[in-house]
Amino acid sequence: MTILDEREGNRETAVNPKLERRARRRDAWRGFFHAAPAYLYLTLFFTLPLIIVFVFSFASRGRTGRPLLEGWNIDSWTRLFEPLVRTIALRSFWLAVLNTALCLLVGYPFAYWIATRRKQATRNILLVAVLIPFWSNFLVRTYAWRMLLDSDGYITQFGEMTGLWGRLLFTVPAVFLGLLYGYLPFMVLPLYAAIERLDWSLVEAGRDLYASGAAAFRRITLPLSRPGIVAGSILVFIPSLGAYVTPDILGGAKTTLLGNYIVTQFGAARNWPFGSSISGAILIVMLAVTVFYFRSGGRTL
Amino acid sequence: MVGQAAVTLKGVTKKFGEEVTAVDDVDLEIRDGEFFSLLGPSGCGKTTTLRMIAGLEFPTDGSVQIFGEEMGLRPPNKRPVNTVFQSYALFPHMNVEQNVGFGLRMQKVEPSEIARRVGEAIDLVRLSGMEKRAPNALSGGQQQRVALARALVNRPKVLLLDEPLGALDLKLRQTMQLELKDIQHEVGITFVYVTHDQEEALTMSDRIAVMNEGKLAQVGTPEEIYGSPVSLFVAGFVGDMFFLPGEIAEAGAVRLAGGQIVRAKTSSAAGTAVTLTLRPEMIHLYASRSELPPDRNTLDGTIARKIFYGDSMFYEVDVGVVGSFDVRVENAPSMRRWEVGDSVVIDFHPESATALAE
Amino acid sequence: MTLNQGAAARPWVDRILAINGWLVFAFLYLPILVVIVFSFSASPNVGIWGGFSLRWYDRMFGNEQLMNALRNSLWVAAWSTVISTVLGTAAALAIDRYRRWLGRGVFDAVLYLPVIIPDVTMAVMLLMWFTQVNITLGRLSIILAHIAFNISFVAIVVRARLANMDPAMEEAAADLYASRWQAFRRITLPLIMPGVLGGGLLALTLSLDDVVITSLVQGPGSATLPVYVFGLIKRSVTPEINAVSTLMLAASIFLVLASLAFQRRGERSG
Q: Which residue of A77, A190, B86, C133 has the fewest CB atoms within a 10 Å radius of its CB?
């Protein structure tokens, strides 16, 4: 028989049980060394800068606007509650929320339409057609609206002629239009991915169990595409909240958003600690949103 | 050829983390030239055992020896074994020829020698003419052969196969079983074959190790495993089996639930609760006891159901508290037909029944 | 492959979806097309067609500042792409192929952050850090900043590719006598190449497009093309900007198509 008779005797020749631990440790070092360059780099040029934002937000303001590493205080944080800051923050927040909602409203039927084309080839072509604006230079795409909305442009002329709108450039609606245009592709792609992955036999099963088309959509399709909805919303909401280019080009002085307001603190306003506290606040909101996303079962963005 | 130890496992244990013990203190000796199968349900540790022989995992404790040589922490590329992976793991960016020649190129074998041996290996698995094909352009069966050739071309001392036929359909699987057996015979290498398919293990192997929950349940030839299972697990896992509860009445006799006493092979002492195991093909139906010699085991039953299967009839025989038996009877002209409600006598030879304690 | 019956909507629903679809496409493309068309207009007045002309392209190539910005852009993009691709690929391998090592969990989280953090905060963070540790603002600081956000994007793309690769590939290579380096060089790298190239192209695009971060960490004379154009746009709208914009759009479209081609190739071989 093969089961060894002298088992106890053979024990002596058995190898050292520490071997496996040594193999595991060797593997762990290999992993660490692969990550080390990127790890070091991100520590130096991401994590430490991230920390310094919070440190500087408690510093006092020097003559040139730079932080003085003395006289630590919380003035920069209390300033966040000033009426002007509150107005700008609320405007940014609502604009971001509204933009996310509108992107979802326009993007969902759009993504659904692409994802439900019968032929794979058709879907691919339509998808490439979405990818091109997605990858196209953001600045140029924003500039396109700056040009279209120019005071002697056709859109302005048409609005004035029909009396529907006046000059749009440098108003909140113009910024809103720019944000929608800028971030719509960010919403469509994750939605498309979620809807295309959907197991349609589940919808069929729903219909088979007497759900109307609308009910099947609401009770089956919509919940199943939730990961795409959440991912798309985050991809639109976070950059909308920190938007800088769009309000700078399409909005005037009266439509300052948080992004521009922060940059101003590092330029004309010369108040780095205050800029830090606003950035810190945005970071906290952003982290909260992201944690919420991962909690709600999302995996990748 | 068969005799010397090809692979020796001594006290091999593999733990994943603190809780999971995939392989638990396994002692095993696989002989040179054997077709040896590791058989068991999924999660029984058979694949982990194979991977420890290959060097893809290292044991938490114990020793793995290949032809007497201690493997320790030796990486897979320094072991005299090759593996046929369950997913085949063919390199998609290389054609058939490049896939098969990969191992030889890594060993820096002469190019002319590589060409010759790759050609031979491709011939061996009957894939001549497909040398330049991409793996993705091959059928499942062909991919399986490439994986086999890719491993065999290196002339390993032991070939490890991890459920190599699992992804194929039934018919192709049966053809490949025969072919694998032929190839093993031709190359004369030790095959260690992991499978969860008991029929596959029975038809192909010289010896089988049945594993359950990380432990060896039984090691033996297919006849031993099938005919004399040592535990209820092996009895239930390999082949079809009837299980009848009872207790040992006296040496060699079992009292069944209805009080009937039958004779059976057993090693348990009187009074022990046992389960009598019985292969379906060992059961025959008769109209009365007078048709039988006196030394047989018999039970009285009634036909409860019959199903026509074309080549055979299928009878469900009700034997009261003892249980019910599904009996298949070949549809030969000489065979007797039964109707539902008929009284019958179930007959089985004492040698074909084994009583196993829990 | 065709879709299941379940996806089919009623005809009128489908028609509304189609109308919405084409309207969205019009919304996405018309503004870009207008910019491209008017870049060929002879009229100095933006938005008024003055006949076909290439004069704005001529003027663009004669603009020394603009050409300098273009050179800066290419320099920065090249370096940051190469470095972030190497570091990001190694990071993806570390996370996907090695399950346990000190700090893996933290690294995994930190690796995602630069992707979701708003540009403005990233810009401000880096500006303060560079001033604090006395790194002169200029091309170097721009490259350092671009690498910082690109590593993450490369790592995510490569990781997706690695996740689709059968780990048995590397085991098979090792089983067939390949050393660790040979297994990486001959098996892993060729198989994840589409991901590495795709990640690299994404890094290149992001680097060529970035306005916000670059404009904060730039120094005198180191403005990249988008930053320079951003300054022009804020001053006034000129047909020359249309020409530059068209050039930048062409570059973007070229990069999308290239990355799709790589992906395609990857799907066929993977």
A: C133
